[in-house]
Amino acid sequence: MRNPATTPTITATHESWPLKEAFTISRGAKTAADVVCVSVTDGTYTGRGEAVPYARYGESIAGTLAELPRLTDFSTREELLKRMPAGAARNALDCAMWDLEAKQQHTSVAALAGFGALRPVLTAFTLSLDTPVTMAAKAAQVRDLPLLKLKLGGAGDADRMLAVRAARPDARLIADANEAWPHDLAEALFAAAAQAAVELVEQPFPADCDDVLRTISRHVPVCADESLHTRADLSRLKGLYDAINIKLDKAGGLTEALALKREAEAAGFSIMIGSMVATSLAVAPAMLLAQDAQWVDLDGPLLLARDRAPAIRIEGGVMSPPEPALWG
Fold first, then answer.
1. Which superfamily is assigned to 9-106 in CATH?
2. Is residue 74 pLDDT above 90, yes or no?
3. Active site includes 138?
4. What is the mean pLDDT of residues 186-204?
5. Catalytic residue among 103, 247, 250, 261
6. 270 φψ region: left (φ > 0), alpha (ψ -120 to 50), beta (else)
7. CA torsion sign, 150 to 310 to 51 to 278?
8. What angle do CA 60, 61, 67 make, to 5 degrees?
9. How confident is the model over 270-298, as a mean pLDDT?
10. How far apart are alpha carbons 301 and 312 in whole angstroms?
11. Which CATH superfamily includes the segment(s) 121-319?
12. Active-site pick, 149, 151, 250, 261
């Protein structure tokens, strides 16, 4: 979308995609993926993007829908970074602009961003927060999936991690506490994570209380999620976290996320690429970021009762690049 002949038209809609079963984390449960889908058209070509407004960051479906149509006097993604704050609204619009620009130039988003042909990547599969017995049983039911992500919630997490490890001694494990670990249990929980051979623990403490990471013994690497949104956060996180989880919705689109990834790698952070629970349209742009990430967590489409068509193909945890008819 550079120097368009006409002002682009933006359309934003709310869509609700039922999940196979309730998805539970420390902050609550959901039974559907509520997303905002944005279309940007120049009258000939149309680009699409999808985002998930997240209440944790003060976002809502209604607020995102109200924000998007007002933006009509921009011409580049770089201008968009200056005009809108990071978040779901900017993400959906930025990804739609990438998709439109690729169609206008009869190429792929990967080529526009300086990538070669995209390769398949291995994604984690998420186990919702539940009892140790239930999480272990669900881990045993997906023996074809080699990388599992455990949603944790504080008390009882040691038993959860050890139970899943016993059920799946072959699997790689990562864990996400979603800010729920009490400070007085943290060292014991890190020790249990090490005993269960967990590779990474995401966001054990609230984002406004994560300075405690400087004072406790950590037995496994720690990844920033809620504490990390854009490049502006990196300097504060140095020395606290070993890795960062880049999500398009937090970064506010692919444009910022690509720059964030470059700066984070230069600063010595390991990289996880994650997403909210959403359809293949939301996940597709993150495939560019996932190409050389240490951990990929883009399993949202696997949690849906149904997905878009065409959907990203995921077999044995391996995600194929999106078809152009979907995005990019």
1. Enolase-like, N-terminal domain (3.30.390.10)
2. no
3. no
4. 97
5. 247
6. beta
7. negative
8. 90
9. 98
10. 8
11. Enolase-like C-terminal domain (3.20.20.120)
12. 151
